[in-house]
Fold:
Amino acid sequence: MKDGFVRVASMTPKVTVADVRANLEAVKVLMKEAYDKGAAIVSFPELVLTGYTCNDLFLQKKLLDEAKKALVELKEYSSEFPGTLFFIGLPLQVKSKLYNVVAAVKDGEIRGFTTKKYIPNYGEFYEARWFNPGPVKGDFIEFGEDYIPFSNELCYKFSNFEDLIVGVEICEDLWTVNPPSTSMVTVQGASLIVNASASNELIGKANYRKSLVSSTSARLLCAYVYTSAGEGESTQDIVFSGHNIIAENGSVLAESKRFSGESIYADIDVEKLVAERRRMSTFRANEDRSADFAAIINLDEIRKLDLELNRFYDKAPFVPSDKEERDARCEEILNIQSYGLKKRLEHTHSKSAVIGISGGLDSTLALLVTARAFDLLGLDRKGITCVTMPGFGTTDRTYSNAVLLTKKLGCSLREISIVDAVRQHFHDINHDESVHDVTYENSQARERTQLLMDIANQTAGLVIGTGDLSELALGWATYNGDHMSMYAVNVSIPKTLVRHLVRFYADTCKEEELSRVLLDVLDTPVSPELLPPDKDGKIAQKTEDLVGPYELHDFFLYHMLRFGMTPKKLFRIAKLAFAEEIKENTYSDAIIYKWLRTFTWRFFAQQFKRSCLPDGPKVGSVAVSPRGDLRMPSDASSHIWMLELDELKEELGIE
Structure:
């Protein structure tokens, strides 16, 4: 598996309590299944070779000897599955003491025994009757002719996958105040934790278990593979459901249906986890080793296959798919934006705001936010001066929507045509008006910004910026034109989310005509309207035809800035996320590649605009403020990224 992915499996066989031979065969079947499906890390439940519910039978030498023999047989059997690491639970006697352990088995060898650190002896659990906690200081124990590491803090790493370090804990260890996984991550750098468990079912416990696994993976910035006992365990007093969970940094990637005996698989993005750790300055490996024996077992290669990825990527990572969650998110964002502006208005003692209103999405959202901020301050919305500035490309539709929106929100409206002023400017700089180049377009944007700034001086107000995060990432803004304002309320809102914020307002506002105007704004093509309309008076200049689909650019932006993904990996996951669109021939490989190349080049080339952004509120985990999230030199080279794109182009055979 390339691009930093590793496939893991969490498998619960049907056990027969105290019948080690039957359990051995059940484990064998699942080992082969996992290997055939491409798994490189495979986890089985706690005490799977005997069954967790043997109780006082754990004190019987016969049972312990059979478990030991079964492990030896599985060790030899593992040689048929090269490069795969298996974790298998069993009881193990060491120097007259009995331990609950998980054996790491790979390529015909036992590589380590992880001991359970915390032995539960409360409620329905009586483990202290049979088992001892793992030793405070680990050691090597004799097993057959070998000496095997024996500790409650063992981790495993691979010669061909530097960032993959696998730690192991056992059931109760996770549920304690100070689980071993904390030390494994902070001291030994574990990026994946396996938990062999036997967690019984009680009312409400499944939800708590899932929350515990996902929150632990988030707290430790790791992947977590939880494997629990299931069918076949004794139901004398308790019942097990085989509730298996695979989580990655707070997100549950796979979860078995309880009482189903279902094996689950997931492809863990180890590169992504390591990128998150690099990004978080508060995540630092602890330089002081713990008092416990801490060891990293160096293994040879883990298997790497060219597999189809088995994971989901949301094509709209900034937008929740669930409507209830999306609506709650929209309300929260509108609050962040409006309270941010409220503070700025209070600080400057301003009772006036100035907005260039175009009838487009971004200026509409900025106006809605400003209206909320004025309401929070108890200010008259007449203090919001909306300026519509028709130019060479303004259409009747956008003009009408701008006027109607202003009136319905109770704001003041000023209409100032920029045509004569821009023509005078063309005359002054000796520019031919028939040449519709960047000078033609930017002259209009800068004229509008000058008007807004001067009106703000007249009214002792603030110019409210309207540009969004997606435009800033691409540099799709005129430097010192719409790029500049006195407070930029949309500065960290991606275009795909702007739509939903406006729609949320339209759906929840009580005035029918205002809602209708907002819906028409949503239905209008995104355009700067700097070029003349077509012969039918409709918008001729459509942004997404020129710079590419915003849904692709927002996807690239999220994964590149949030997780540092390389161009090849971005292309690979984009194909997964937009699979349906690819089926419908909306996005071919060539189209995804084209816009990924555009995004990468523009992102680097346009940093100089982001280096001097006005203030504005951060609302999500991705932002480009030079004072916060993105400290990037304006003259950084994109060379190595573009070289990788050149390699990808050759691999794809794109002309």
